[in-house]
Amino acid sequence: MVHQERSTVYYSIVCFIISIGGLLLGISANVSGASLYFGDYFGLREGSFAQGLSVSMTILATFIGNFFAGNISNRIGRRKSLMLAAILFSFCTLGSALSQTYTFFLISRFIGGLGIGISLLVVPMYIAEIAPSAKRGILVSFNQLNIGLGYLVAYASNSLINGLFEDPEQKWRWMLGIGFLFPVIYLVGLLFVPESPVWLSNRSHVQSTGKGELSYRTQWQKLFSKRMRLILFIGFSIAFYQMACGINAVLFYAPKVFEAAGFSSENSFLQANLIGICMVVMTLVSMALIDRLGRRPLLIIGSCLMMLSLLTVSVAFYLSASPLLILAGLLGTVIGFSISLGPITWALLSEVFPYEVKGLAISLAGVFNGIMSFIVTTLFPVEAEKLGMGTTFLIYTLVMVACLISVVTWYPETKGRTLEKLEKELIKN
Known about the structure:
22 helices; globular; about 0% strand
């Protein structure tokens, strides 16, 4: 019993260190506050594509990092892949903070996005391979917890820096530069965690038998075979819904949305902190329930809450209702996301794909997820300007209607099942 408790504590510590990679995505949201100030420095017009690109360039690179993540992690291992991700993101934070030109700013953000793309897919895959099946849900959810903590740190540091400096240039440079601390901490932490036992076992098998991994052509054929149709639908649909629901519009443009709702600039930064707090608290709630209640019930509850909350925001903007109603709707959206699409997307992606095609499959699902993230993040300022906030949030509401139908109709429950058993059941069906 003592050995079992010690083992659980050990796995929890190891998985938490690995999951700090989620902080990289969360910390990148510091651009939400910085974007209010660097636009004037770089001469970006309000509501322009260039303004949206300055925020979404990291997301653009993320899906490129997603595409290569599976291959990189299969070749050099999960741990070294995350070390590479930390190095790339550290360059992003310093480079963007010290940028003198818009071009170098975009290049810095792009390099950081490559690191985020790698960590976003490798972290849940790494944890799923190292965690006991009974605790896999909660341990994989550490990734979403750290994403939420990253957002909270980004919003809180933005608020602090916004109050400390008067010069707009100092504000945005410090908002972006303070993120350098976190990839360095992550890099040091990774020195003390073991490599994935699944990767090591597969590596040993390859060396002992002399047989390499399946060729990409063979993996493509297996992945897109008739028997994989349900698995492909689950993986790619949840990757689509996680971003198409508009969560990045809330997380990366929080101060802008709150200003449009009628809050002052100072209050907009403070309201953004509430979003970060809600994300962290509700992710903790999700972690407590994911291996008890299950993935599917949480997805249904979260989808319903997001649908109603996004509709509330849309109607409130149409009717020019109280800013507090819009705040309540946005917080409801974040709460729903944090107990469902946020953590469960990565849990499902790490669970449903068979090992022999997992690297390729997760990379492709991640690329698809990244493309949707880039589209939503880039087009939000344009949509808000041309269509209005009400119509924009109505579109996100309709996406959640489709998500709820998909979950109720086709998604299975995966809690407590070994990856091997789950693979057989999904292919059989």
